[in-house]
Amino acid sequence: MPWVVGIDEAGYGPNLGPLVQAAIALPLPEDDRAGWNTLHAVVRRTHEKRDHRLLIDDSKKVYAHGGLEALETGVWSLWGQSADTFAETLIKQELVKNTDLLTEPWFDPALPLPLAIDGKRVWDAAAPVRDAIGPHWRGDIRVVTTPQFNRIVQETGTKAAVLSRGWIALIESVMAHLPDDGQPVHVSCDKHGGRNFYATLVQQAFPNRRVATEIESAAESRYRVEGGSREVTITFRPQAEGDSLAVAWASMLCKYLREVCMQQFNRYWMAHVPGLRPTAGYPVDAKRFFAEIQPILAKMGLTRDQVWRQK
pLDDT (tens digit, 9 = 90+) per residue, 208-229? Predict the structure, then answer.
């Protein structure tokens, strides 16, 4: 059965807080790469009637539908039943790779997770979902802190490089950890900043293989990676999280982890600046928030580039 890899991100547009990118790889039939029909018995979307099935959809819809609890339920159905600290969760899920998150001043390693649900109850209830996707599914997450983000921007001159580097890292990690079964891999992801041309990016992810362009348009950009032990196709589409269950699940992983980080970020700064209102980190409100914390940065031994993204 082919492998379908969904890739998404949360936090690319904000000026504050981390960028989170994630990939989910699921075995799905060739005639249902989207996965919604195959897993319909165990997974539902936000427009469907609430029942026993697990809610998986575009993270923005899930968050609007059920808040952090709904996101956390989708994540913990895969992550496990035990309650851990934030640091233990990151280590157990191998999320500490390529990140400075543990060195962020606002990061609280002792925060108990999950926050809003009973992890064991969710894990037990989601057994039919895990049975349906099989034991070899793969999930990878990359967390880019503000200092990391700024270093890449300084090095390359563009914030697009941050997204591209993370995308390549996720592709390489997923491909390295998939079972050696020779099955084709279909990668689906959202367009990066509305661009239509990705051949160079795909070639960087597969430097020893030939990349053939199949289509490049506003509606879809699709590439075929030739050679190697398995066929690989990569498709970029606008709002891919609505078309693909794997992308939707990846988007939920991203948004959940960013929401947990932003809760800590806000709690840290609100403890140091009386009366400070929390922020989601997006432009306009981020300026308000940063203006209020800027007077105490030097006292705390922090520079602007450790807190505020350059782009």
Answer: 999 999 999 999 999 999 998 8
DSSP 31: G
CA nearest neighbour of 292 among 265, 274, 268: 274
**Going from the N-terminus, what domains does the chain have, and what CATH number goes with each?**
3-264 (3.30.420.10)
Q: Are 196 and 223 within 8 A, CB to CB?
A: no
pTM score? 0.94
- Tokens at residue 89, please? 């969760």
Q: 56-59, long-range: CB within 8 Å, 24+ apart, which pairs?
A: 56/245, 56/248, 56/249, 56/252, 57/241, 57/242, 57/248, 57/252, 58/239, 58/241, 58/242, 58/248, 58/251, 59/8, 59/10, 59/241, 59/248, 59/251, 59/252, 59/254, 59/255, 59/256
Amino acid of residue 162: V
DSSP notation for 45-114: -TTSPP-SSEE-S-HHHHHHHHHHHHHHHHHHHHH-SS-EEHHHHHHHTT--TT--GGG-TT--TT-EE-
Cα 116-119-123 angle, rounded to 5 deg: 135
Contact of 191 with 201, CB cutoff 8 Å: no
Q: Which whole number is the average pLDDT over 15-22?
A: 96
For residue 189, list its beta bridge partners: 7, 236
Cβ-in-10-Å burial (0-12, 13-18, 19+) of 134 comes to exposed
Cα separation of 62 and 255, whole Å?
Answer: 10
Query: How far is it, in rounded angstroms, from Cα 26 to Cα 5?
Result: 6
- Greatest C-alpha distance within the chain: 60
Q: Cα separations (Å) of 193 from 13, 110, 197?
A: 10, 36, 11
Residue 136 CA, distance from chain mean position? 19
